[in-house]
What does this fold into?
Amino acid sequence: MEEKYLELNKNNWNNRVSGHLASDFYRMEAFHAGENSLKEIELALLGDIQGKSVLHLQCHFGQDTLSMARMGAKVTGVDFSEKAIEAAQELARELSIKANFHCCDVYRAPQFITEKFDIVYTTYGTIGWLPDLDRWAQVVSHFLKPNGKFIFVEFHPVVWMFDDDFNQLAYNYFQDEPIVEEVSGSYADKSMQITDTTITWNHGLSEVYQALQNAGLSIDHFSEYPFSPYDCLKDLIEVEPNRFQVKQLVNKIPMVYALTAHPKND
Ligand SMILES: C[S@@+](CC[C@H](N)C(=O)[O-])C[C@H]1O[C@@H](n2cnc3c(N)ncnc32)[C@H](O)[C@@H]1O
It folds into this structure.
């Protein structure tokens, strides 16, 4: 099972990279000109990261990783997509930004990276690709320095209960089984000519909480937001600048949550 989901999902992510780089969604021209790709929620949680070492898990093609480098951090990005990591390395070269990128499965990262970090960071569309949150939290914990900080921002599990049109509840909140789907296009460009099978998992909030606790982390901050900073789902409307909500569910559902945690050190 593990080999199968990794192969299918990696193929899908490799197929998305060129389309994402060319998409309006990722605003590459503005990024080249110096725009910071990070959004208000994570910027507030990061604060001043000048001189801090940051491990960015599931970094895609490195836009956010390189944004943190521009903010003065020493950055390392990890992603299992070869195409994404090649694009990240190329982008870093083009922009003359110092960054390390590793191509590997999140669960295997401790086999390839020996350093410990001030901040472990992962955001938006990450844990849904992972079957086992205990293993994920152990990886996070493994990489944190004793006084380090974990920063996590993710789409809310309530969002993933709906069908694509947000018209009905299609999935259980408590869904242990993997979701196997044929997906066409991508959130960054719905017209992308790709159709792939993906395997994903819905993880409830208590599962995240328990996994972090089990891995020896203590949660310092937890918040939920009625908006997404990305216009990445069907029929969203911009209720305020860079705050998107589902047209027929404005202020009715949580769309994103964020937390920070630190090692208990007892
Ligand atoms: C939605 S993207 C993350 C988006 C990110 N916030 C950004 O900067 O654009 C999810 C990323 O997770 C990566 N990924 C999925 N499963 C993975 C795994 N098992 N190990 C490592 N990376 C994985 C994909 O290649 C993809 O780049």
User: Anything to note?
Assistant: The chain is about 30% helix and 25% strand. Residues 21 and 152 are 24 Å apart (CA to CA). The radius of gyration is 18 Å. Residues 2-263 form a domain with the Rossmann fold fold (CATH 3.40.50.150).
